[in-house]
Amino acid sequence: MTGNNKQLQYEELSLLISMFNDNEFKWVGDPDQLEHWKSALDKFLLTHDVSGLEVSPFRFQILLDIGETWFNVFLPCQYPEARPECYFSSDTATKQIWTEINQEIEKKLNERCDGECCIFDIYQHIKSFLQQPAITETSTSALSQFNEKSDYSFKICRILIWTHHLLSLEKRKCVCRWANELGIWGFSKPGYPGIIIVEGLYDNVQDYISRLKSLKWQAITIRSEESEVIYNSPPHEPHDHGEFVKIRLGRINPGVSEFESMSEISSKMKEAGLEEMFLSAMKINKKQDKSLT
After folding, report:
1. How far is CA 146 from CA 62, 141, 152, 230, in A?
2. C-alpha distances in Å from residue 52, one per residue of 48, 140, 214
3. Which residue segments constitute the domains of the chain, with CATH numbers given?
4. pLDDT (tens digit per residue) in 143-201
C-alpha cells in the first residue's frame, strides 16, 4: 500500500466511523482483525500519521434504512487507486430487490474515477435508491399497512442529523425556514459538528431531509430516526399532531430553535423525554453527558 493510498483510506474510514453509531457501522472480521483495525485507526486519529500502521485489508458493513439491510465493503490494500468491493445484503429483501440494488452499486463503481474515495457517496446513493417507489413498495409493507389501518391516526417522525460542520448563515436560515414551512419542530446547534433535530409528520420530515441533503455539505448523515403512530378519535384531523409535538418540544409554533452548545441541546432533549435518542446518536454515555454541563 502506497503512503498516499493509506492516508486516503484512513481519512475516509475515520470520517465514516464518526458519522455512524455502533449499531450502524460494524467491522467484519475475526477478533484479532477487529482489534488491529481499531487500534490502527485510534493511532491515526491521534497523530494523522500512517507510517508504521500495517493491518489486513479493511472489511465492514453499514446499516441501510429498510430493515436488516446492509451495505458491505471490502477495501483492497491499494484502494482508492484500486477498486473496492461493495455489495448489498438483506435477510428480508426479495431476489429482485437484491439484484436491482447490487446492479446499481456496480453501476456506481463503474462510474467512479480512479483514485476517488467513493464509499460514502455510494452509500448515500443506495439509500436514496431504496426510497424509490418501486423499491419502497416491495420493501416496506409495514408503512402501507399503517396507512390502511386507520383514517384517524397519523405518523410522527423524529430525526437527528449530524453534519461535519454547520457554519454557513444561509444553511442555518434554510434549517429554520424549511422547518417552519413544513410545520415541523426542532433544535439545531451550529459549529463543529452541526446538529439538527426535528420532529413532525412523517412525510414532512422526509421532505425536510431531502431539502437539506440537496445543499452542499462536506458530510451529512442521519444518526437517528424514530417514528410512532398517534391514534385519534374522529373528528380530529391530522394537523392535530401539532398539539402533541409542541407540548413535547416546548415551542408553540413550528420552527427550529438554535442553541450554541451541546449541553443546551442535551438539556432540551432530556426535557422532551428524548435523552436516550440523543446520547445514543451522539455516542455519549451518561457520565460524559454530565461533563457537558
Report:
1. 27, 9, 11, 11
2. 12, 46, 40
3. 3-138 (3.10.110.10), 141-292 (3.30.70.100)
4. 344 344 444 567 788 899 999 999 999 999 999 999 999 989 899 999 999 999 999 88
Three cell numbers at 202? 412523517
How far is it between the farthest Cα atoms of the chain?
69
DSSP state of 166: B
Residues in the chain: 293
Q: Residue written as cell 410522527?
A: 156
C-alpha distances in Å from residue 127, one per residue of 61, 105, 132, 222: 14, 11, 9, 11
Give the whole-angstrom CA distance, residue 144 versus residue 162.
Answer: 29
Query: E strands of the chain, at which residues?
Result: 25-27, 59-63, 69-74, 85-90, 153-163, 185-189, 194-201, 220-231, 255-258
